[in-house]
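From the pipeline queue, job 12 of 40. The input is one protein chain; the requested action is below.

Action: predict structure.
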Amino acid sequence: MSHHQPTRVLAIRHGETAWNVATRIQGKLDIGLNDTGRKQAARLGAALAKNHAHEPITAIYSSDLWRAYDTALSISQAINVPIVSEEGLRERGFGVFEGKTFDEIAQLWPDQSLRWRQRDPHFSPQGGESLTEFSERILTTSQALAARHPGEQIALVAHGGVMDVLYRAATGQGIQAPRTWSLGNAVINRLLWSPTAFTLVGWNDAQHLEDAAMDEPAFLNT
């Protein structure tokens, strides 16, 4: 297999959680799927299994946080491909913001909340990561994983923040650019990775889901 062949990447955010619904920051906290999220994950696995014969997925990499891993598990069971747990695909660390709702953050730390909402690339909540640090981690991890599979198709199952970083990288959007694209739970996003960069193939495919996938506020990745 030539190492110059591109890698097809299915980038998938985890299914819905109760904290998504409550607009509560999850970050690196290990929150599980809610009932809707488990149904979304099952539908996702079934949809990918239908295409597996002519578009096989040769590897599944997942964030080790349970909401992502449980989503990846539905894919793994549907196509009989094992999951490789990857800590580097975790959501952005939000430090003291984790466990708080948007409103609570605005009330407790108004100045920090503003910097967060304005996507200050160098701001990090106490104990958390800046956007710059987070983006570098995700791109380093995802490119290294894609590089292992030239000419193949892989799945990366992770978080809203991870999807946002990948979209920006694939479309040349700056780290502070306002988000105008969706980051839906359990939707299928398609990228191509060549040995230097990601490019966008398709985004926010939700045909397999019964209802519209919940999106995130444009300033936030949880």
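Job complete. The chain has a mean pLDDT of 93.
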